[in-house]
Structures are given as C-alpha cells and as structure tokens.
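call fold target=DUF4760 domain-containing protein
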Amino acid sequence: MSLSDLASIAVIVQGTLFIVSIILVGYQLQENTKLVRAANTQKLVELSTPFYMQLAQSRELTEVWQRGGQRLNEMDDVDRERYFSLLMCWLMLHENIYHQWRKKLIDKDTYASWTRDLEYFARRQHLERHWNNFGGYFEASFSEYVTTIITRLTQEAA
C-alpha cells in the first residue's frame, strides 16, 4: 500500500469521524434541551408550591382568596389589598410560564397543564372583573393572551 493510498484512507476516516462528531453534537444538544426543560418545569413547581402552602396553612389567607373572587366589595381595604397582591403573584408566575413557553424552554404538555390552571384561575377568581386594572402591568403579548382567555371563558359562560 502506497503513501497515497494511506492518505486517501485517512481522508475518508477523517470525513467519517467528522460526520459522527456532528451527529453526537446534535444528540448532546437535544439531551441538553430536555434537561433544561425538565429543570424549568421543576422550577415552576418550586415557585408555585409556596403559594399553595400558604393557602393550605393559613385559613385567614384562604378566606381572603375565596372571598376576593366572589365578594370583593364586602372586603375591607387591607384584605382587598392582600387579595390583589395574591392575584398579581399568581399572574406573574403565569407570565413567566408564558414567556418560557414562547422561548421553547418548557414543553408543550407542561404548558398545556399550566394553561388549564390559568383558565381555572381566571374563571374561579372572576379575573374579567379586574383585568382592565391589571392588564397594563404585564408585557403586552401576555396581556393579550390573558384577554383572549377571559373573552373565550366569558363567551362559554354566556
């Protein structure tokens, strides 16, 4: 075998290894994306758990949460402010989720689950009563998204 033949074989092996390395890099990127999405999903659970735990541990706070959605006008100024703070916290969490989904940082099934939660939240807390006051505090595309949900829920209820 001549030196020219060995050089040709080396070029073929080199080309093959290059293609294999490109495939491996692509695979690593896919795996990394899956890990990032899993970590983001876990972080959303970590962010939402304290909210639910506070409601579970504090009867008074749970009453504020329930009354605010049903009988806001009967609440005093302090409880009304507490209720609006709870609403804003939950909406900020959903805004975060919305933006992570738009940047493809959480998967479709996770986002669908959180969307159902947002719809339940909007229906249960009668968000349509307050959205004109709150919508301007959020990024425009999220605000439009919530407006669309509220409009659809209102039409379904009619």
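return ok
Residues 3-57 form the longest helix (55 residues). The chain has one domain: 46-157.
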